[in-house]
Amino acid sequence: MRRIFLLFTLTITLFAPTFVEAQNESTTIFNFLSLPTSAHVTALGGANVSLYDDDASLLFHNPALMSNAPHRSINLGFFTYMQGIKAGNAAWTMAAGERGTWGIGAQFVGYGTMKEMNVEGIEMGDFSALDMAISGGYSYTLTDHLAGGATGKFVYSKYGPYTSVALAVDLGLNYLNADKGFSASLVAANLGGQVKPFADHRENLPIDLRIGITKQLAKAPIRFSITMVDLTRWTSNSYYNPSRETEKAGRILLNHFVVGVDVIPMDLFYVSAGYNFRRAAELKAAGSTHAAGLSFGAGINVKKFSLGLAYAKYHVSCPSFMITAQYHL
Questions:
Q1: pTM above 0.70, yes or no
Q2: CA distance 81 to 183
Q3: Which stretches of 256-318 are DSSP H helices?
């Protein structure tokens, strides 16, 4: 059974680029699925698939990481995004036997109430907009160092009178050698499609292939993470810089990287910082990044309770904050 699960996960993950080769990247929807759900991940640049931590919300980033979550853990997160947008998530993990872990989770993004106008500019009233996803997943420790996981997602969006529904799955692998402080992961996220489109035209989900490594220094309480994202998108320069006709190959390559560092002076406390190269390149203003792409955070872990706080700069006018709290029942 373990071999079948491993073969299935590897096959689907490695062939994910084939499924998205023909996609038009400008037509993807449900992009809220790419938002971070963990304060620790937010502090490390907003994308991380190899972080080995007792954080139940990591099931949204890599389902294989559920194997590291404590038995019966509940995790709640709240995220302030751009222009007053609010996002939140909840996750629950529970051990299933000696090697298995179940997890369920939910995400939402609320855009508030807006004025509805017709084509003549006449106000028709107010409308609200909401994105949400409900997830259920399972991870299994295949060997002493290798774990695999899968998460199924029901995705729903409502923008005024228009609604859309989609089904998707995340597949992940994680290699962890805790004695050497090394973790490496491979994730194929958002494989699936719309069940009900907004109108007659069906659009693509933000399918993403990610790889990442995390390494702790042997003689210092410092841990580094490097994550590569959007590995199915290499040929479209306009995807990374729509204002230019061409972009240098080096810049396109660099925009796939997210780097982060943890300083862990003791098991009960950490301080983190990260840098997202794509975010910094795309959100320049007046020729300067104004610290866009930078992120910081810290967390504590006291007995059965843990708390994480993070700050991320998405633009000169809109810093973002995230708080994550977890309790082990």
A1: yes
A2: 30
A3: 277-282
